[in-house]
Structures are given as structure tokens and as C-alpha cells.
Amino acid sequence: MSTTLLRTTTTCTTTTRAALRASVPKSAHLAAGLSFTRTKVTLPDLPYAYTALEPSISGAIMELHHAKHHQTYVTSYNAASAQLATATAAGDVAAALALQPLLNFHGGGHVNHSLFWENLAPASQGGGEPPRGPLAKAIESTYGSYENLKGVVEKALAGVQGSGWAWVVRDTVTGGVGVRTYANQDPVVGQFRPLLGIDAWEHAYYLQYQNRKADYFKAIWDVVNWAAAEKRYEQSG
Q1: If we measure between CA atoms, which residue out of 94, 97, 40, 37 comes closest to residue 71?
Q2: Which residues pair with 179 in a beta bridge?
Q3: Could you report the per-residue pLDDT of 65-121, keeping only the tens digit for each?
Q4: Mind listing the pLDDT tens digit for each residue in 183-217?
């Protein structure tokens, strides 16, 4: 996981803080020697070109999605965090509470998208290859096959009303894998750990697929980076 997610503020909400902690390995926290000091979050660099995921995802969508939409979450989270710091210093509890929805939404947007970029890769970097190792066995144990899991995820994505995400998650209580949907930019926290997320917001596909979002849900598997999900699975055990 990118260390970008570690560079957040002490004023983040409980939900967003939990998402930030859950999204990085424990070793990263120890190596960085950080405990969420007051610094700004930043837009992570992509490990591939905007055009690298074509034809599954066009370069135009990737640039808009990363440079504009994700940047907006970063900018807005930092602005809300600064306002919260001011309100907290002034002892203005009402103002601090009023900022919580903004912090959750934009902080969640930053966390979710940072994970999403790592969930994708061109074929030259392993994109489209099926899961392997313990994660593959867990998927087969729960769903019977990788193809069955894909069908479950696509059905979950199709059921997202408005904006949201579908995630393959690991249940920290049972140890099993499952598929869950989250509205808007709500991050995966608490009992579950995010393994693989697919963005169902229109800005993730509309320029290319328009109203054919089911085609996007199928095409994205050709650039899914299961190696990143496998690492998260191992770290969540």
C-alpha cells in the first residue's frame, strides 16, 4: 500500500482513521514511524500511464478520474481537516461536528481511490491474471470458482443505486472472503478488510461506456491486479 495513506492528520474522524490504518500493513506503520501527525494527504502517483489500461479503461477516463476526481477528494479533505483544526482550537464543538460528513466523504474518497489504483494494472504488469495462492483457495472455498466470484461482484455492482463501490473483503472474525457494497465513498472498516474494490460511480466509466455500465463491470477484470489483493489478504490474517 502506498505510504500516501499514512500522511493524514490527527483530526480525521474515527471511520476514516480506521480505514487509513486498515489499508496499510503494520510494517508500514512501524517503518514510517508515524502516528497520523498533522500533515496533508496527497494524490498518489500511478505506477502506469493513463493509457496503459486501454481498451478496458480509456486514458481519458483515467486522467479525469485520477487527476480531477481523486484530486478533489484530496483537496477537500485537507480543507475540511484544516477547518476542523481551527474549530477544535476554538472549542467550537458544533462547527467540529458539522465537518464530520465532509471528512468522512472526502477522506473515504481518498482511501478508496488510493486502493483502487493499486487494484489495477496493465497486462504487462500482471493485470487480468487470476488470483493465486491462499486467496485463490479462499475464493474457491466460498464461491466454488473465480468465475463465480466475478458473477457475484458484477451482480453487486449492478445493484448499487446511485454511487458506490463493490468490494471483495476479508472477514476478520471468520477469516473468510465475501463481497460487500458500500454507498458513496464509505470506506471498508471495522470487521472487514478491503482486498479488491471496483468503483461504480459514473465518473469511473461514463465517458467510455455511457449507459452500458455492465460492459464496464465485465471489462475491468482484464486489468484487475490480483497481486495487490493477495498481499492485502496475507496482511489481514
Answers
A1: 40
A2: 168
A3: 999 999 999 999 999 999 999 999 999 999 999 999 999 999 999 999 999 999 999
A4: 999 999 999 999 999 999 999 999 999 999 999 99
Q: Indicate the DSSP class of residue 127.
A: T
**Separation between Cα atoms, residue 150 and residue 221, nearest integer Å:** 8
Give me the count of residues in the chain. Answer: 237
CA–centroid distance for 45 within its chain: 15
CB atoms inside a 10 Å sphere around CB 93: 10
* Residue 192 to residue 213: CA distance in whole angstroms: 27
- Reported as half-sphere exposure (CB side, CA atoms, 13 A), residue 10 has a value of 8
Cell of 93: 464543538
Please name which of 222, 142, 218, 136 lies closest in space to residue 179, comparing C-alpha atoms. Answer: 142
What are the cell numbers at 148? 463465480
Residue entry with cell 443505486: 161
Which residues on neighbouring strands pair with residue 198, listed in sequence order?
Answer: 166
Q: How many helices (H) and strands (E) does the chain have?
A: 11, 3
Phi (first) and psi of residue 15, to 5 degrees: -65, -50
What are residue 167's DSSP bridge partners?
A: 180, 197
DSSP calls for 50-107: GGGGTTTS-HHHHHIIIIIIIHHHHHHHHHHHHHHHHHHHTT-HHHHHHTHHHHHHHH
